[in-house]
Amino acid sequence: MKWILPCALLLCVFACQPKTEQQVEGQKVTTKAATKTANTEKTATGIPKAEKGITVVRPDGWTDQEMDFQIGYCVSTVSNLTNLNGLQFCECFLSKIQYYYEPRFSKEAYQDQAQWNQECFEAASTE
Fold this sequence. Notes:
By secondary structure, the protein is mainly α. It has one domain (4-124). Helices cover 50% and strands 6% of the residues. It contains six helices and two strands; from the N terminus they run αββααααα. It has helices at 4-15, 32-38, 64-78, 86-97, 106-112, 114-124, and strands at residues 22-25, 28-31. Strands 1-2 form a two-stranded antiparallel sheet. It is globular and about 35 Å long. Mean pLDDT is 75; it is low at 1-38.
């Protein structure tokens, strides 16, 4: 029961996303979002700049063990979404929020950081 709300929230967020244009270059598909994600504004320390002006919680980010757990959890949460590379989305999004949110607050980050959520969703879209 406690997983229904977060899953429904993620499903709604992903289902409502606009489709992105794609350009075929040989066999490689490049989206505008992938380019935009690469250009995410960063702080002087190289940490991506948070949308809501949150101060850095951990300048070194999460530990490898915390990241592995969060990626596994995230992938299992989005695995039922079609047209999305779940691993790519989770790695993109979690690599940004790891500096601003303790791992236990990662669900809140999906709501708080809508721009990163959108960028990572578009970059991981398989359409």
